[in-house]
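Annotated sample (chain length 356).
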Amino acid sequence: MSVRVSVVVPVYNAEKYLKECFDSLVGVVNFNDIEVVAVDDGSVDGSAAICDDYAGRYKNFRVIHQPNGGVSAARNAGIEAAVGEFIGFSDADDYVYPEIYKTLLDSADEYKTDLAVCCFIKELKDGGTQMCGFNPGNKPFYSGDEVIREIVYKAMTDSRFNSVYNKLFSREIIMKNNVRFPRGKKYGEDRDFILSFLSGAEGVSFSNYAGYFYRYVESGAINRARNDYVETLLAQYYADLRSFSVFNIEKSVIEENCGVSLIKGYISAFWIADERSKGKEKINLFRSAADNAGIRDLFEKWYDKTFESELPYNRKIMAAVLDRNVSAINRIIQFHKLSERIKTTLRKFVRRSGKN
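Output written by the structure step:
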């Protein structure tokens, strides 16, 4: 069997959604051209048995069982085992749509690119969905210096390019440049992998097809309020400074763009803390974030640049953070949430009135 795509699926205690994920991979229109490399990362639920079951039923399903080492270690093990011309990734609690790998392969073949990208559907907390995509110049492909000028520059401040699951990566480039996921990171490992890959890529192609469904999972790392969230953002900021420097972009440009991106993430930390915690725990998270010495200097340095591009309510939060006014931060967030609920109620009332 000639394998065009190896899909690496890191699996850890994912039995709730794993069959849906695997069934979606079996259901892709070019299933005979792909292999699935499921990496059981020390699961203690029924995930390992599900992996073995699919490997027993489908000749292009393979399973690696290993002690728990984290998602990066699992993905790296899958990369080492992969034999496809391209490598893709899926999370075990998500699923793909039937045309995803055909669409991405057609795009890579037509424009002879090392990286092919499509859109994805993101599930929201309230059960709604949002289509997400990143194509800064709205072009079908980019090559040579365009990759840096059009994609890398925009990726400094646009997080929509940060995920690996809606992409196909040339295995040749991965192996030639020893591109791997950094082990031990809590956040930003996809971004590091993509930037490392782009440093050796000759071209990137894009499709408007939404081929991947990203499921909202309450226990997901991104969705948890954490005491170390700001420290994690800082670590990613300094990692970004190093990663973008290999593209010969002017240092001041990198610092400004990564600084603005950091501050936007910093403000998001207060919204995350509000959604994921209550009472004293929430206020303590607010205070910890507002008083963080490591980010205060950077916050003040890039305050004006970030303030210009923010929405009014986030501008108010920024001003309160600058004053370390935790009570004001809380009031601003609660007022905005109340305003949104009122707007939603009014919209529903207007729709019902229109039907009568």
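Annotation: The chain has two domains: 5-221, 224-344.
Annotation: Residues 221-225 have pLDDT under 50 and may be disordered.
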